[in-house]
Design brief:
globular
């Protein structure tokens, strides 16, 4: 909203300083500062309100050190995170941008599903919360909507690379941008619909999902959107569940999400900027630079929430926060065509998810084969395994953050490491 206000003041009255709102870097800085302020000051009031309502976490006895002391700690703190993301987004982004619209929808949608889960646990005294099938239906529903928007919306486009050695660029041409680079690549000046995405570590690093159904012939026209939407739905469901599982000890999911968010903000900025996209020889996606402002608010919200969520936590984010964080990361990565980097960027979420899957699968297999279930880990998810080994949770969280930073650096390096 402030973007439109100051844009109007700049164009109509030449208001001093109003033009600064046109710069992404300024609005991103304002978004991160605003989200930090909201989290720190609004968060304190929300925590007091949660305590007054006795919205305390019910802790299952898993035999972990320090676990009983967490009993009664306020949950539903994800409301703080969501507020700190959405308020700066509404203030500083261009709300007519399709990518911003889908990010707002994703935040509200998964935040609402998580809120229902927490509400049932806390107020209905049902430890199971929202049934897994109901939660899955909600995640799939969002995936279908986001997949359909990204596939069919005319504003979700890319500019294809064109081999400069085969084209003579005319000075006044409106077909080709005169953006040559050392590798002989320029961008078409025409926005085009595409199902291409980025493959890390490869020189010609673009992959078209249409290649997966190259055998379909005339059936490709209806199979391609179906395939694309299914892939989007799978990614959103997997990453949101991964973040949900990671949220098991103080500060782990919050800090990890902040690291991931910073990495994705960098990708959004370079992908939406013709100069950087040209220099790095990566896919240029018009209008995605605006997403950097949204992700700045996201990072600020996560870092600010750590003020209260770091060990010993004064508040838990609950599913209200964890499902929203995971969903935001997934949708964001898909929007900037970096979803194939998710196993690296979200390596912590992936390992946590896999640890649960392996533990459950192996337990069921050995019970069927030997009559009693056996375990690979002392406890899953992986962070609880290290707790069982005697590591303090603050040490586990810090080391997971370090691994997350290493994965983030590796992800950024893929921009040129091909």
């Amino acid at each position: 909203m402030l973007y439109y206000l100051f844009d109007y003041l700049d164009k109509t009255y030449d208001f001093p300083g109003a033009g600064v709102f046109r710069f992404l870097s300024f609005r991103a800085a304002m978004a991160i500062i605003t989200s930090l302020v909201i989290t720190l000051f609004l968060g304190k009031g929300i925590i007091r309100q949660l305590l007054r309502l006795q919205v305390g976490e019910t802790i299952r006895d898993l035999g972990l050190e320090g676990q009983k002391q967490k009993q009664g700690t306020p949950t539903m703190g994800g409301l703080i995170i969501i507020a700190a993301i959405l308020i700066p987004t509404l203030l500083f982004t261009r709300l007519d941008n399709v990518y911003i619209i889908i990010m707002i929808i994703s935040t509200l949608w998964l935040g609402f599903i998580g809120f229902l889960d927490d509400y049932i646990k806390v107020f209905k005294k049902d430890k199971e919360g929202l049934r897994a099938k109901s939660k899955l239906v909600g995640q799939v529903g969002l995936g279908l909507i986001i997949g359909a928007v990204l596939y069919f919306n005319p504003n979700v486009v890319v500019r294809e690379k064109v081999d400069a050695s085969h084209i003579v660029v005319k000075q006044q041409s409106n077909v080709i941008d005169d953006l040559d680079n050392s590798e002989g690549v320029i961008f078409s000046g025409v926005n085009e619909k595409s199902t291409k995405t980025t493959i890390p570590f490869l020189k010609n690093n673009e992959f078209d999902y249409a290649e997966l159904i190259g055998w379909a012939g005339d059936q490709k026209s209806w199979m391609l959107p179906l395939l694309f939407i299914l892939i989007v739905t799978f990614i959103i469901t997997a990453v949101s569940n991964g973040a949900n599982i990671t949220d098991g000890i103080d500060g782990l999911a919050t800090g990890t999400s902040a690291i991931i968010g910073t990495t994705l903000a960098i990708f959004a900025y370079v992908s939406g900027n013709t100069v950087f996209a040209d220099y790095l020889n990566i896919m240029y996606i018009p209008n995605t630079g605006e997403l950097m402002v949204f992700m700045s608010a996201f990072v600020g919200a996560c870092v600010g929430f750590l003020w209260y969520n770091s060990y010993p936590a004064q508040v838990f984010m609950g599913d209200t926060g964890s499902l929203a964080l995971g969903g935001i990361i997934a949708v964001f990565a898909i929007a900037i065509r970096k979803e194939l980097l998710i196993p690296i960027i979200c390596g912590i979420f992936l390992v946590e998810n896999l640890s649960v899957m392996m533990q459950v699968s192996y337990f069921k297999y050995t019970r069927k084969k030997y009559g009693e279930g056996r375990r690979i880990l002392r406890m899953s998810p992986l962070h609880h395994h290290y707790q069982k080994l005697g590591y303090h949770e603050s040490k586990i969280v810090t080391r997971f953050w370090i691994v997350g930073i290493m994965l983030a650096v590796l992800s950024v390096v893929t921009l040129k490491l091909r």
